[in-house]
Amino acid sequence: MKRIAIAGAAALVILGAGLAEAQPGGRLRERIAKRMEQRAEGAAKRERTPGAQTFSYGPDPLQVMDFWAPAGAKAAPLVLYVHGGGWKRGSKDSAMGNALPGHLRDQGYAFASINYRLVPAATVEQQASDVAQALAYLLARADKLNIDRSKVVLTGHSAGAHLVALVGTDEQYLRKAGLSFADIDGVMPNDGAAYDVPKQMEQAGRMMADTYKQAFGTDPARQKALSPVFHAAAPNAPRFLLLHVQRKDGVAQAQELGAALKKAGVTVEYGSFPGTGLQGHAEINRKLGEADYPATPVMDAWLKGVFGR
Hints:
The chain is an alpha/beta fold. The chain has an eight-stranded mixed beta sheet with strand order 1-2-4-3-5-6-7-8, with helices on both faces. 50% of the residues are buried.
């Protein structure tokens, strides 16, 4: 029941945020959404896998991450997770399923979950840079943290899925952090829907229109520059696993990105799972890593293929 309550709280956070911008009384709804987020964060802290170390990878208070290492590992593959929240909210404590860190640690992987600077105080470009900077921080300390820096996967949910797809297709963010596509073995976006930003904005309903406008602005050139689809020509990260539930826009955007990546010679796999609407979108994030959730073995098999173990 606790997990259901947490998922419901997270869903209300997202929904409340959208309604706050789309309807009168937005300030009240925003306060309600914030309270729901705080409750979800408190519950997550109680239930999350223990043993995390917390690091600051930059000077901003939001440039922090939690890091889990498998016991006794000398050179563990690394999975780095980026939370969602419409680019403007969410955190590593309230917007990630509790099962994922422990599940991946038990598979012998190191796992990091990052916070990043949020819109409107920061831009989406800066958020992508934060993802790359967080990865660079960990790889610079690979020996101390017992990370195998030659085995790295980026993953993220919702807005985080967009950010890891962007970092995995537009190398400028990695280069600015002293890295390149050679430092990434795979990218696993989880139920994102802004891989083609202009198309997503054209199809956005009333609830999400302002969220996309706030994140991506009105300049078509900037919208394309922030679209992984428009960077999918080679080079890219070498392998992608595109996870999604049965949301119309999420399915269409995953297929468009996958087709563009395949055309460039990237190895692309898809994971299509039950679930619709906000509930399905939240569930694939909350349940990923649970043994009986159908996306978990798909993720496990793909990671084994990427890491060769």
